[in-house]
Amino acid sequence: MRRYIWNILFWGLLIFVLMSLSRCETPVDKQVESSETKDLIVEDEEVFIQGYSQKLYSIDSGIVQPNQSLGQILPNYGVNYTTIVTLSDSFKDVFDVKKIYPNDKYYIIQSNDSTKSPIDFIYKKSAREMVVMHLQDSIFMDVVEKPITIELKEAGGIIKSSLWNSFMSQSLTPALVNKVANLYAWTIDFFGIQENDFYKIIYEAQYVDGEFIGVGKIKAILFNHMGKEFYAFDYDSPTEEGFHYYNEKGESMKKALLSAPLEYVRISSKFSNSRLHPITKKYTPHHGVDYAAPTGTPVVSTGDGKVFFIGRAGGAGKMIKIKHTFGDVITKYLHLSKYASGIKKGSFVKQGQKIAEVGNTGMSTGPHLDYRIYINGKAVDPLKMTVPSKDPIPDTLKANYIKDIATIKNSLDQIVL
Questions:
Q1: 333, 366, 368 from 284: Cα distances, Å
Q2: What is the distance, to the nearest Å, from the Cα of residue 182 to the centroid of all Cα atoms in its chain?
Q3: Tens digit of pLDDT for each residue in 185-196?
Q4: C-beta atoms surrounding 98 within 10 Å
């Protein structure tokens, strides 16, 4: 029995020692291997800064300080005054050296020897543009544009207060908010979006050297407003030059009229056949929509057309009437404070072009725009009318269009909120 116990202790101790040795040896071997590999990488790797090898050049960098000029920076690196004057005077058509700004970065490329002779000076004009000033031999300057790398990104959100706040909570950019608002300018009034409206979006993110520099095009988007789905897809137009946005049915996102002629605070009065007038205190038709907004707010033409009336018109105050280029459609803009420069009777205006500013002229109790639409001489409610689409996908090509957008539409629908 005693012998049996000693055998167990002996073999147990032997196994423990062997396992301990194994544990000690394995990390040492791995550490040596890792260290050797790391040394090889450091030795073999050639580090480049702005395209210049650190093996071949001495590279320094700095930040432009407030009130600092090129003439104050370059002498610190051995660049003489004659060279600075040449850069300043001879290359203004390439880049004006007076237009360097605080907090911008620069690099100085020097010879990799004891002389540290200045070779090139690089000013980072933007994330993409680099101004390269060649300082040796034949002095010259050029602007180099770095390539942009595009990645498709997906996002989605449920609106609780505003489109802006929802986008910011998703770390999306203000530029993307503006793109969405412009894309839906004909179909959605973003001053009337509701809580729990939601969106899904696929867009281009732009990078230079791995650094995010901004958003590109929206490739596809779904906006659900008050339970109604509004799709938009970026597509190569078969009828117009370039890419345009179309909905899932092939209808252009551009409508003949914008959804509203201004950025307003609120709708103060809607279309009505019998409204109590705030001044006369009588019930009369109000065949327009009143948009409350500060005096001076820009008013734009909601569609292409020709101005056929501009001037005062009794209780309407200063007014503009526009005959549009499609159908028998007229829009009116009442109670204006002033007209935009160049707008006169006979002027042709484009959709979205500023024509006037909000005012309080005529029979008005406060600054607002009274906006009216007439079709075939009859007043229609701007908030309820169906506006025709501009240049839809032709019926003969619609099947191809629906097939072409199927993949990205499926990706859009799969985005989880």
A1: 19, 19, 19
A2: 11
A3: 888 877 778 899
A4: 10
